[in-house]
Every structure is written in structure tokens, then in C-alpha cells.
Amino acid sequence: MPDESILSDDLLRQLISVGEVDILVGLHTHNHAATVGQVIQVVREGLLKYFPRERVAILNADGGSHDGSRDIVCAASIDDVRHSADIRALRTLHTITTQYADTVSPGTAMHILVEAADLLRAKACVVVAPESSEIVPEWIDRLLRPIYRDQMDFVAPIYRRHRFEGILVTNLMYPMLRALYGKPVREPHPGEFAFSDRLGGRLVDHPMWTNDAGRMGPEVCFTVEALSDGFRLAQTYLGPKGHIEQQPTDLVTAMRQSVGPLFGSMEDWNGTWASIHGTQPVDTIGPAFDVTAAEADVDPERLRQMFSSGVADLAPVLKSILSPNILEQLQRAATIDEKQFSFPDELWVKTVYEFAAAYHKSVISRDHIIQALAPLYRGRAYQFLTENSQASSAVFEEHIEALCGTFERCKPYLIELWTAQERGL
Amino acid sequence: MRLKEEVLASLAASFWYKDAVIYQVHVRAMYDSNGDGVGDFRGLAQRLDYLKDLGITAIWLMPFFPSPLRDDGYDISDYTSVHASYGTLDDFKHFLDAARERGIRVIIELVLNHTSDQHPWFQESRKSLNNSRRDWYVWSDTYTRYRGTRIIFLDTEMSNWAWDPVSKQYYWHRFFSHQPDLNYDNPAVRAEMWSVMKFWLDLGVDGFRLDAVPYLVEREGTSCENLPETHQVIKELRKKLDENFPGRMLLAEANQWPADLRAYFADGDEFHMAFHFPLMPRMFMGLKLEDRKPITEILQQTPQIPESCQWCLFLRNHDELTLEMVTDMERDYMYDEYASDKGMRLNLGIRRRLAPLLDNDRRRIELMNGLLMSLPGTPVIYYGDEIGMGDNIYLGDRNGVRTPMQWDGGWNAGFSSADPESLYAALILNPVYGYQAVNVERQKRSQHSLLSWTRRLLQVRRSSPIFGRGSIEFLYPANHRVLAYVRQLGGDTVLAVNNLSASAQAVELDLSRFKGNILVEMFGRNIFPRIGELPYLLTLGPYQFFWFRLRRI
User: Fold this and answer.
1) Whole-model pTM over 0.90
2) Is the ipTM of this complex over 0.90?
3) Which of B44, B78, B190, B339 could form a disulfide with B350 if both were Cys (CB 3.0 to 4.6 A apart)?
């Protein structure tokens, strides 16, 4: 039903009561009762500490929780009915919640937030992950201040991660987005980020909400939109971020929510990214720290095994996606023993670019394309883990930087693949 | 039946202060009848018809006693006379009679805590350590006693002790050093102050506003505020008042938290009324924040008081808008929002009048007055605020809010025939608030002026005792910009709904327990839809407020 409002009558009623705000905080919950209480307490503390005079509301879009997540969020309100003697707040702080569906849809949740922010005329909006166990009040300040005080439009986080967590980000999302749009955004698929009313207003009626990219990975779409259309962008150092790397069984889901939207967004902005060369720095705010931290406990060998079996099992599918040369190199890598294994940067970059082009051409179902990339990513992850197992933080960063350089250097290859269809090739 | 009516009437008369609307004025500021540049009692008497027409029922006179006037008359040098600038005692009696003829009660100020250092009592006391009045004041060889006591006038005083070079001891003063505190441990002082009160009561005044009551008694190791011994002094005075002058009233000036203020009502045997100081800044805060929370929270913290007692509410008065009873965060907010110019700040407060505080925004002025008149308590209107008079922050101390009343656009604003240079204070002259733009005469001619509107407001308030005597229950609609409450007295119910924001608001009120009633808007007497099962939806314009009488028809 295209005419159906994304905002339910009940939510609209709540928004009327909230009225105009300066800051809107958004959460998307789905059975996060174990963590969301702590997160929202910290958010509230940050708001009271850093934005005590601003009109603020917290909006939770819930995807059908059965564990009481919504009640926990609502209990964080500060008003004249539920006031607490130990909370010094100038203003009422509304915490409202809405259940948008019985199934999880990040895009729907984000769409609700964007619409609500526009209705409430929020000058700044911050999105917080409900499972952020390391969140501290300062995150709220670091994310919002550039928007609220310095007229930025989009603030992405920089987390201090365990070295081998977020390999999908360091080996694909970050370098590819950087190559495409010329801006080094370390977290293109952030759990926490903030945006201005200008950027939010642009997204209110955006077509992203009706396509797979927006539905699955709205955070990536936000980042791309901010990068592509002249919005003022900043990054802010937040601090340690907990375990976000998906389990192998969740990898495809993670890729659907990140790589899929990245590939999908290329459709909308090919006129922009194709003409961008090199990298321009992004304003970075807050006390800097080494992006990588101590190592995490991972099992590389299992990744290699899954790569090998995946390449073999998916050979017919990969044949429809990849060029013979790339496929042959991958098959060779999948069959050689552990000690001789090699999945170099350029092979990985061209593999990704060929997947992106295949996604563009829809040579097969786009979801199947994303699924087929998963085992290849595991092979690349194995290479990255073994290559950096003893590397210092500086060397680790150098390797990532080198990979970024390869993504940039190979960009003409992507453009050639991308435009081959238009050229009748 | 007639006996019952008489009893009820008598009861109503004895609780007159609950139904009152008080007008606070300094005799000096109202009208100068003899052309010497200073207002006087003859002049004030001439303006009683204006006050009667405005709809006030009581006048609170600020100190008019002989005084060196180093603290605007709060430094009294003779308690039983009238300052020569304001007339004679006979002039006062004439004014009192004229007020009584018009049904206007008169409340006068009494400064119990201290005298002027020019008062004969202090002059005697300081003569020698053996003087019979030596222990009428609090003397000490050192300045280290009562160290736990805060200094009130932080901007001017370094200590609560001052050295007396005559008798070579320190004397205690909670306010200015030229205002030595009386020693209420001395029975002779207490007896003398009752004599003073009796003097004025015999003349016919209806009550006293007792200044600075928390500070009457000092004890080592305490804050020297709100001490049990201070309450005992008040109880003694109240007992004598009730025994000798039933129906007269005591009003406390005690800038304290509600819980501390509660003690001044005791069991109905201390003060009849007390100013609710913490509410006032929170009304301004709620308005600026567009959020009812500061107002409802302080009223939630306000304890119940005995049936015979009453809170006294005000928006502005002769002092600074005091910010003592707010948190540091709230004070910073208030300063930034209401006193961005440092010259507007004094002590822990803001020395501005109502209209300038509210940017001369008629809608906000009306809303604040609507709140003042509908929240539980007896309202006080500060002279000139009914026409939106401005202030002059370039006059020292709090004199900027004590300028002459602006009667018309003519010579000296119609206040005095004296040379302008000889007026006790310069008139407000600026284009926005100057007397040619803001004056009584001009506003009397317009049905839509602030003066005419205020008159109508008081008329509506007087139409029901519910505002002075009724209970209050807050409704807490989800829209925090709307402050809604139900006032009830007997079978009567009034619903007040106030939009604290600068934009139009929709609000849903849970009025289900009043199902079947219709709402009658009290100003226009228009009928609003009947209350049903569903939440009652109202829309309000910016800063709009409604008073509805609920009627079951």
C-alpha cells in the first residue's frame, strides 16, 4: 500500500505531544532487553550533561520485540510524572517507542526516524545501537556536537576495534567506498552516527526506502548520500567498540546489510563516483587513538576451508559473475595448500569490482550475487589474518592503506566493467 | 437559616486574604499630591478609585516609616510614624478610611528583624556596654560567632558582623551593615514589637507583611535561619493578634524552600500566608523552556498547609527576581535567558520588571498573569505591571523597578507637578516603555489594552472563590508544553489549560471522570463540546490559556 503512512496514528499522537525538538535520538530495537536499558541510561546521561538546555526526544523503533525492550526504553523518560530526585533536568525528556512491524527491517526503522525527525524539526539526529555495551556519555557529545554546533551534516564514528574484527569493513567497505567517493570514511556501516536536518530532510522522500539497499542497509545509504551530494561530513573518535563481526552463519546477512547497499548505491550515483579521483581528507574530531587494538580470538583455518569449499560448490554461479581470469586465480587459490595460499590485494579488489559490476548488470539474482561473495570474502579474510598476525598497529594500518591504494588504482577497471553494458560489450 | 448565613459570611470575612487580589505599591511611587516630587498618602488616597476599578481587593504598602532611606525604607528609624516625605499620620488615617470605604484592605510592611542604625534604640544601645538597650541588638567581641551563616547581600557585604567604633564591639546584621539585627532573645524587644503592631492594628490596618522572618534568632552552630526559637517569636505575636484583633492577617516574607516555609504555617498558629518564592522563577523558567516541568515539580514538592493558611503568589515585586531557590544549572539558564546584560543582575537575581522580562510580549504577559490568577494562592500585582511598565537598569540597586507610576503622557507622567529633576526617581523615558507610550490614561481608552485586559482577568477571578480556595489537581497530558489543572471547591470545578509555548499546540486531556459535563469558557462564556469517553482534544494558540467552568447540563 504505497499511500500508507510510515508513521502509525499512535506514533503520530506521541510526536504531537513531543512537539518541536532540537535533538532526536534514534534506536532500533529487536529483543534488546538485555542491553538497551544500559544504553539508554548512558544516552540520557550524555544528553543531560552535554545538552541540558536543548529540547530532546528519544525515539525507539521496535521490530516486534517480545522481551520488553520497548518498556525499558519508555521508562527512561524524564517528566513531571516519573521524575526522579537524583536526576537534575531542566526539561522534559520524552522517550517514545513504536512497533513498526513483527519482523525486523532496519530500513523501516530508519525511515521512521527520518520522518519523525523531519516532523519534529530536529536540528540534529543521532542514531545509537541498542547493543552498544561500551557506549559512554561522551559519545553523544562527540556525535552531536559537530552537527549541532559546527553545522556538519553527517558524523560517522571511528571505533577502536580489535584488530581482526570488522574485516569486512577494513577489506571491502572502507577501501571501496573511499575509492568510489574519495573520502576516507572508516565506518561506512556505522552502528552510531549523526545527521543534520539538512541531510535528513533530503532523505525524507528518498527512493532508497523503497529499494533493497535502503531496506537492508540504510546506514550505508546515509553515508553514501552524505558523501555524494556535497554535505559536510566529519568523523569522530568514539572509543572501543565491542564484537560486531558476524558469525559465519550471519555473514551473508551482514553482507546483505552492507555490501548490498554499497553496490546498490552505486546505481544511484554512478555519475558522481565515476568522476572522482584520489582521496580528500575528512574532518576528524576528538582525541585520536590507534584504530586497532588487541587481537581477537579467531580461527583462520576454518575461514580458508570455507573459502575452498565455497569456490568449489559455487563454481557455476561464480562463472556467471566473474571473468575467466579472475575465476581461475580464485580456483587456484582454493585448491593449493595452506602454506602456499595467496589471495593478494589486486585479486581481491578485482573480484569485488567484478561482483559490483555483476550486481549492476543483474546477471543473476542480486541476492545470489551477495551470497556468492561470502565464501570469497572468507578467503580474503584468511589472507588478511595470516598476513597481519604479528603486525604492529602501524604495519596493520599500512596494509589497509595499501589495499585502499589498490582499490583506487583499479577503479578504471571497475568503470570499464560498469560501462561495458552501455557500450554493448 | 439566617444564622447559618451569618456564620458563613463571618467565616468568609475571616478568610478574606484567601480571596484577595493584592496590589503592592510604595506610597512614594503612586501619586504626589503636594508637588514635592515624592508620592504621598494624600496622593495614594486619590488613586484608590483607580485601584478599585482595576479590581484589586487589598493594598500592600511597602515601608513608609521614618527612615534614612538607605534601603528603600527597610531601614526604619521610627516604627510608629510616617516618613515626612509621605505625609503625616493623619494623612495615613485618611488614606486608610478611604480604602475601607471602597472595600479595599490595607496590609502594611513591618521589618521585624532589624532597624536602621539611626533608630534611637540602636543609638542608645551603642552608647555603652551598660546601656539599658544594649542587649536589644546582638553584640560580640569577635566576628567569629555564627560562622555557619550565609551572607545574603553578597554584592555589598563581606560579613554578617560590623564593627561599631563607638562601643568597640561587633554587631550582627543579616542585611546591610547599617541595619543591625534586633535581639529577639530579649523579652523587651518582643514586647516592644508587639506594641508597634498594636499601634497600627488599632488604627485599622488589616495585616502585616513581616519582612525577613527566618532570621530573627541566632544560635551557634546553625545557619541562623528558620530556628525553633524564631518560630516561637512568631507564635507569640500571632497569639496576641488573634486574641486582640481577630480577622487580621500575617504574611511571611521568607525566601525558603517550600518544606522550610511549611513550618511558618505551623498548625495554623503562625502565619496566615507566606510567599511561595521558589514557584516564581520556575514560572519564568517554564515559559522560556516551553515546558511545564519546573512548575509542576515545585508544586508537587509544596507541602499541604492548614486550611486557614494560604500561599501568596507573585510574578514580580520591588526586589530582584530572586534566584536563590533554584539550582546552579537553573540559575545559569535564567541569567542567560532573562538577563544577558550583566547590568540586569543583582545579588542572586534579576532586577527587571515583568514586561521587559517578557520582551513586552503581550501574549506572554497575559499567560503569566493567567497563571498567577489561577494557580492556588493569593496573587500579588506589583504596581505598574498592570499597564506593562518598564524598568531602568541604569538606576542603582533595585531602584530601576521602583520608578514613578505612569498615569498619563503629560507632565511627569501625571505623577507629580514638581520639576522633573526633583522627582524621587527619574521617569522611564525610552520609546518602548516610556510614560508617553505606556500610561494608565492611554490604556483606559482602549478595550484591548493590557490594563483593560487585566481588569477583566480580575473580574473573572473574582467571579468564583474557587481560585482562592479550591483544591488543585494536575492533569499531566502527554504534551509537556501544556500545563493543565483542575480546581475544585465544593461542587464547582474549573479547568485551566495553559499553552507555555510560542507555537500552537494540540492536547488531549483525560477528563473522563467529568463525562457529561460541558465546558464553559469563563472569559467569553462560550460553550465547548461535552466531555465524553475519549480524551478531550483542545487546540491552543501560542501562549494561549483557557479557564473553563465545568457544567453538567
Assistant:
1) no
2) no
3) B339
